[in-house]
């Protein structure tokens, strides 16, 4: 076995690899870019070397620099993780030449599977079933058009060198073919430097089911069952699970054997995934092979009781596969959710910023009685490369964490996932957590009515309007508001003295909050032993039972409250950032912007993130002029960031006092864009 390896990656996968290496007593060398100087993966490794500026092409994609670091630090092998250099055959070859083990397949296998067209040709020869289509050498438009016409529409155009869901075009009818081909080729050349495309029959309501394979240098190859990754957005996986619901033993072994055949056809070594597209009737077709560890590998680890990174290290070091096919068994059910810094309501636009507050669900441990030696006795696992205080930057994939749960049955795993998502708190960036909660809770997912169009088909359930804040939420926000104001007057017992207290009458204080759903005008009554809260719809008596600083957090982030509302217990966490309150209770996250009528007397600026740039980008349109009166929600300007347009709208009604930038200006994250005076 190796004594020292270099991890040529960042984020959660670098941390994931480092954890197994440490358990096996292998020293680790991290590489990092300028943006990652204080990253978790750097802290987790024994040594760390700066390899260049933040952009991936100047650091994590610098094959020669990384190889030089490996040689200089005495690493015997390089683990490439996924993405970056993991499927770069030239890099695998340079490692070999330099006498360093590339922890992955031989360069020839990466080459063979790197082109989707060439891979399909190979699979055809090996009798692995293929989606009907054309994947040959001819690329002239008329010829490809005739091929598409003869297979019947819809068809899918794919960049042969594509990956990550990019470079694909669905063509609905013959008349659209030529335009789609031009645009697909344009994207293919710009994203992958190769404009070769293939044409496939576009399947109706298919499932994405992939098989994990593992091969050793002795020529053995096994499959570690399947993962269903049908729940996707823009051809990118969102939820992954194992085993695939509804899979029969017979079909599992047919797909497993097809995948092993595919791997053997290219003399595969190490971890690989053969992706199939599967019809609702169960017929399966080879799509592509990913010649690396996959993002979603933990669900396989959970149901098979294996550590696939350990397998990778052992196989790369020349050891035989730890288990035979007959020894591998499925135990229970696992689901993974990818938690992203992104805004599902705005087309999944990535969100950039500092993770001001992060609370993760508690790990649930259990001992598996079928396998007492199992090294992962957890039912809730979080793989993450970031911690509270870290930044989600525009340079890399905005994944915050992978949340993986195990249950004896799918229903148990689903329940555990729902619970874990409800406990996951993130403030500082937009996240897809609420979206994942709706997805997990949707009838389509919970009944396993799976296909790659699940999200599209369930738009109404998955993208509801912002819900109106409940009375418990408003009460929690108010408790935090009053607490902050009173901490200065009586630190020991802030609830005993109230700034609003008057001897003979009860002070009624007007408090106003707003979110995307509506404005909330309420009155807080200050009494000797309690507060009252009145909204236009409700009223209740609030008693503060307990409050405590959130021990996982520091600074101004996070306080836990227990209240009674007319005798009913309400628990929640409130995180305050200036006048924005984040209220976490009963598994929901509500954002409220507080407007203090006393302090601002109706003329102060509307606070809250919406008038600032949510990420670095360019101003591409301005819809208002100085002096305009705008309603709440009116579009004010449009920014372009990370190749997507993002509309900034008015958080409340007001008058535009000043516009601070012009169309074409580049602005930094958090920059104030304009001044809006509340009306
Ligand atoms: P998986 O098949 O494991 O779900 P993807 O194919 O979506 O994963 O991509 C795996 C990782 O590689 C992701 O982090 C993604 O951002 C990254 N990735 C995918 N394609 C590319 C590419 N062309 N260049 C760089 N990184 C990529
Ligand atoms: P990538 O390299 O980007 O992962 P894939 O070939 O694996 O590309 O396809 C990505 C996704 O696109 C699949 O998971 C599936 O949802 C969809 N897809 C691919 N081929 C087809 C097809 N022939 N019919 C319908 N959907 C497809
Ligand atoms: Mg794929």
Q: Give the beta-strand count.
A: 40
Strand order of the largest sheet: 26-27-28-29-30-31-32-33
CATH architecture title of the largest domain? 2-Layer Sandwich
- Determine the number of helices (DSSP H or I, runs of at least 4 residues): 18
CATH class of the largest domain equals: Alpha Beta
Q: What helical percentage do the residues reach?
A: 25-40%
- What name is given to the CATH topology of the largest domain? D-amino Acid Aminotransferase, Chain A, domain 1
Radius of gyration in whole Å, from Cα? 27 Å
List ligands, each type once: adenosine-5'-diphosphate, magnesium ion
Describe the sheet with the most strands: 8 strands, antiparallel, barrel
Output mean pLDDT. 90
Determine the N-to-C terminus distance: 70 Å
What's the CATH H-level homologous superfamily of the largest domain? Answer: ATP-grasp fold, B domain
Can you tell me about this structure?
By secondary structure, the protein is of the alpha+beta class. Helices cover 26% and strands 31% of the residues. It has 18 helices and 40 strands. Helix 12 packs antiparallel against helix 13. The radius of gyration is 27 Å and the shape is globular. The model is unreliable at 490-504 and 598-609 (pLDDT under 50). The structure holds adenosine-5'-diphosphate (ADP) (2 copies) and magnesium ion. Residues 275, 288 line the site of magnesium ion.
């Amino acid at each position: 076995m190796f004594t020292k390896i270099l991890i040529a990656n960042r984020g959660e996968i670098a941390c994931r690899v480092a954890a197994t290496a440490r358990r096996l007593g292998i020293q680790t060398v991290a590489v990092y870019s300028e943006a990652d100087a204080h990253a978790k993966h750097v802290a987790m490794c024994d040594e760390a070397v700066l390899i260049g500026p933040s952009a991936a092409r100047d650091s994590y994609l610098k094959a020669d620099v990384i190889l030089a670091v490996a040689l200089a630090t005495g690493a015997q092998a390089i683990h490439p993780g996924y993405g970056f250099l993991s499927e770069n055959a030239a890099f695998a070859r340079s490692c070999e030449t330099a006498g360093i083990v590339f922890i992955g397949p031989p360069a020839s296998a990466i080459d063979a599977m790197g082109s989707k067209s060439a891979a399909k040709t190979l699979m055809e020869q090996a009798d692995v079933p293929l989606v009907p289509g054309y994947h040959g050498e001819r690329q002239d438009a008329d010829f490809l058009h005739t091929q598409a016409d003869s297979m019947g529409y819809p068809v899918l155009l794919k960049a042969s060198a594509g990956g990550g869901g990019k470079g694909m075009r669905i063509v609905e009818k013959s008349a659209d073919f030529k335009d789609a081909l031009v645009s697909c080729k344009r994207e293919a050349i710009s994203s992958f430097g190769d404009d070769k495309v293939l044409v496939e029959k576009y399947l109706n309501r298919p499932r994405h089911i992939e098989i994990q394979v593992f091969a050793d240098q002795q020529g053995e190859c096994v499959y570690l069952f399947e993962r269903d990754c049908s729940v996707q957005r823009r051809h990118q996986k969102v939820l992954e699970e194992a085993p695939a619901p509804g899979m029969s033993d017979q079909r599992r072994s047919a797909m497993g054997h097809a995948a092993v055949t595919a791997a053997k056809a290219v003399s595969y070594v190490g971890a690989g995934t053969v992706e199939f597209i599967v019809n609702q009737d169960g017929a399966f077709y080879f799509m592509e092979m990913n010649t690396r560890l996959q993002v979603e590998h933990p669900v396989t680890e959970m149901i098979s009781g294996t550590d696939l990174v350990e397998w990778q290290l052992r196989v790369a070091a020349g050891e035989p596969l730890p288990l035979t096919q007959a020894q591998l068994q499925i135990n229970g059910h696992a689901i993974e959710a990818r938690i992203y810094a992104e805004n599902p309501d705005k087309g999944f636009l990535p969100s950039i910023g500092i993770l001001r507050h992060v609370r993760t669900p508690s790990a649930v441990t259990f001992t598996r009685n079928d396998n007492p030696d199992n090294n992962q006795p957890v039912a809730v696992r979080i793989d993450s490369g970031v911690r509270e205080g870290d930044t989600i930057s525009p340079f890399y994939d905005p994944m915050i964490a992978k949340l993986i749960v195990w249950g004896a049955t799918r229903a148990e795993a689903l329940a555990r996932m729902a619970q874990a998502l409800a406990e996951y708190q993130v403030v500082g960036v937009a996240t897809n957590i609420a979206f994942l909660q709706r997805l997990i809770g949707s009838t389509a997912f919970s009944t396993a009515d799976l296909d790659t169009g699940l999200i599209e088909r369930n738009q109404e359930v998955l993208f509801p309007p912002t819900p109106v804040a409940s009375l418990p939420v408003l009460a929690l926000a108010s408790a935090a508001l009053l607490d902050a104001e009173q901490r200065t007057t009586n630190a020991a017992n802030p609830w005993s003295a109230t700034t609003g207290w008057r001897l003979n009458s009860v002070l009624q204080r007007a408090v106003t909050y707003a979110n995307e759903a509506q404005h909330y005008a309420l009155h807080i009554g200050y009494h000797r032993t309690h507060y009252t809260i009145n909204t236009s719809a409700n009223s209740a008596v609030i008693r503060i039972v307990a409050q405590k600083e959130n021990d996982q957090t520091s600074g101004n982030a996070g306080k836990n409250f227990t209240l009674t509302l007319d005798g009913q217990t309400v628990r929640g966490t409130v995180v305050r950032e200036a006048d924005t309150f984040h209220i976490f209770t009963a598994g929901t996250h509500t954002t409220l912007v507080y407007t203090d009528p006393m302090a601002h007397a109706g003329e102060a600026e509307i606070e809250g993130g919406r008038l600032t740039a949510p990420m670095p980008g360019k101003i591409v349109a301005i819809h208002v002029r100085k002096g305009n009166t705008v309603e709440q929600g009116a579009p004010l300007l449009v920014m372009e960031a990370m190749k997507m347009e993002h509309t900034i709208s008015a958080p409340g009604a007001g008058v535009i006092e000043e516009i601070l930038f012009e169309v074409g200006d580049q602005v930094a994250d958090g920059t104030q864009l304009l001044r809006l005076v509340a009306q």
